[in-house]
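FIELD: query
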Amino acid sequence: MAKIILFPTHEGYCRTCAYSSGNGTCNNKKYNEHQYEVNCVWKYCPYRKEKAE
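FIELD: result
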């Protein structure tokens, strides 16, 4: 089965990311510098890193 990749603006997109602060903000400096590109141009986050389970 294929893994579903959510759009960056989806509410669950950042919850499994290691850079998620838990209050809806991102701790990744590069993401914060390129927020427009991630959400409007690239439509994915190249800085996203899955949390270890």
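FIELD: remark
The chain is about 25% helix and 0% strand.
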